[in-house]
Automatic annotation (TrEMBL):
<feature type="domain" description="Porphobilinogen deaminase C-terminal">
    <location>
        <begin position="236"/>
        <end position="303"/>
    </location>
</feature>
<dbReference type="InterPro" id="IPR022418">
    <property type="entry name" value="Porphobilinogen_deaminase_C"/>
</dbReference>
<keyword id="KW-0808">Transferase</keyword>
<dbReference type="GO" id="GO:0005737">
    <property type="term" value="C:cytoplasm"/>
</dbReference>
<comment type="function">
    <text>Tetrapolymerization of the monopyrrole PBG into the hydroxymethylbilane pre-uroporphyrinogen in several discrete steps.</text>
</comment>
<feature type="modified residue" description="S-(dipyrrolylmethanemethyl)cysteine">
    <location>
        <position position="251"/>
    </location>
</feature>
<comment type="pathway">
    <text>Porphyrin-containing compound metabolism; chlorophyll biosynthesis.</text>
</comment>
<dbReference type="InterPro" id="IPR022417">
    <property type="entry name" value="Porphobilin_deaminase_N"/>
</dbReference>
<dbReference type="GO" id="GO:0004418">
    <property type="term" value="F:hydroxymethylbilane synthase activity"/>
</dbReference>
<comment type="similarity">
    <text>Belongs to the HMBS family.</text>
</comment>
<dbReference type="GO" id="GO:0006782">
    <property type="term" value="P:protoporphyrinogen IX biosynthetic process"/>
</dbReference>
<dbReference type="InterPro" id="IPR000860">
    <property type="entry name" value="HemC"/>
</dbReference>
<protein>
    <recommendedName>
        <fullName>Porphobilinogen deaminase</fullName>
        <ecNumber>2.5.1.61</ecNumber>
    </recommendedName>
</protein>
<dbReference type="InterPro" id="IPR022419">
    <property type="entry name" value="Porphobilin_deaminase_cofac_BS"/>
</dbReference>
<comment type="pathway">
    <text>Porphyrin-containing compound metabolism; protoporphyrin-IX biosynthesis; coproporphyrinogen-III from 5-aminolevulinate: step 2/4.</text>
</comment>
<keyword id="KW-0627">Porphyrin biosynthesis</keyword>
<comment type="subunit">
    <text>Monomer.</text>
</comment>
Length: 323
């Protein structure tokens, strides 16, 4: 195969979803690479993914992994594009044969944010009234918030950020829970009413980071992509992804994490919660950053022993019943 760098065609094709957030992220990656490799031309090719097309079904019900990535992955395997930029949290923990996670860029704030309707601008997550309707389509957010605030109501919300904001402002919801990172990237930081603490909501695996996926045998492209990798974010996300990979069974599960690095020590905290908000298992492990993935597996083992497996089995059984 001709290599990307030494071939006469110095063009690298970047695949992206068409959503505004995806394009902001992809253009950022394009710009970072263009700055470092001015002799190479980086082109953006957009593709609609299943997740962009199915907008009327609750995400948790679709339950399918790779909803936002499959078309881009086919594009790479078919040599139509060379790499794809993903929100790392949307990238399944197991990649198709022949593809690899080449680089992870520096993470934005990975926390979740509370965005409120005007009428609740004086409230916080713990002072919203009984029955206030919170919009979220994430089982992870739902389970944790139900656990801490059983008096709140929850309603599914889909669509891009602008759509969700319009629904909130129109009064369909009293508040939304959204990723800080997405709001910041789209210039909506002013809508962040409260950044949720890790006591209230542990974030999703990979949240706030971008993952760059390419063909596993494209060594020259991988070495280019390493130029924009952020090693600390990569180590944190590798630990988080190993934890999730070990626990999930091919569907959306209420799992949250937090990671910190101090010197060479990585600390990973994880929770598994039941969707009804009644059970929550939480634990922490620490070790060398170079053992990031081993730490994820170790934590998965620990939470399993404390009841996480039962919680997951119930969720898998529920999905089986509904399908
Ligand atoms: N599930 C959708 C999704 N995928 C990535 C982000 C933005 C945050 C990120 O990059 O992690 C969002 C929006 C959200 O969760 O509010």
């Amino acid at each position: 195969m001709t290599s990307v760098v030494s071939s006469s065609i110095r063009t690298i094709r970047i695949g992206s979803r068409k959503s505004q957030l995806a394009l902001v992220q992809t253009h950022w990656v394009q710009e970072q690479l263009q700055k470092r490799f001015p002799e190479i031309s980086f082109e953006v090719h957009t593709m609609a993914t299943q997740g962009d097309k199915i907008l009327d079904v609750a995400l948790a019900k679709i339950g399918d992994k790779g909803l936002f990535t499959k078309e881009l992955e086919l594009g790479m395997l078919n040599q139509e594009i060379d790499f794809a930029v993903h929100s790392l949290k949307d990238l399944p923990t197991r990649l198709p044969e022949g593809l690899a996670l080449a680089a992870v860029t520096e993470r934005e704030n990975p926390a979740d944010a509370l965005v409120v309707h005007e009428k609740y601008k004086d409230k916080q997550i713990d002072t919203l009234p009984e029955g206030a309707v919170i919009g979220t389509s994430s089982l992870r957010r739902l389970a944790q918030l139900r656990y801490h605030f059983p008096h709140l109501s929850f309603k599914d919300v889909r669509g891009n950020l602008n759509t969700r904001m319009s629904k909130l402002d129109a009064g369909e919801y009293d508040a939304l829970i959204l990723a800080v990172a997405g709001l910041e990237r789209l210039g909506m930081s002013d809508r962040i009413h409260q950044v949720l603490s890790k006591e209230v909501s542990l974030h999703a695996v990979g949240q706030g980071a971008l993952g760059i996926e390419c063909r596993a045998d494209d060594a020259e492209l991988i070495s280019l992509l390493k130029a924009i990798e952020h090693p600390e974010t990569r180590d944190r996300c590798l630990a988080e992804r190993a934890f999730l990979r070990d626990l999930e069974g091919g569907c959306q599960v209420p799992i949250g994490v937090n990671t910190e690095i101090n010197g060479d020590t990585l600390t990973l905290t994880g929770i598994v919660a039941s969707v009804d908000g009644k059970k929550l298992v939480k634990d922490t492990v620490s070790g060398e950053t170079e053992d990031a993935e081993k730490l994820g597996t170790e934590l998965a083992q620990k939470v399993r022993e404390q009841g996480a497996q039962e919680i997951l089995n119930e969720i898998f059984a529920e999905i089986q019943r509904n399908s």
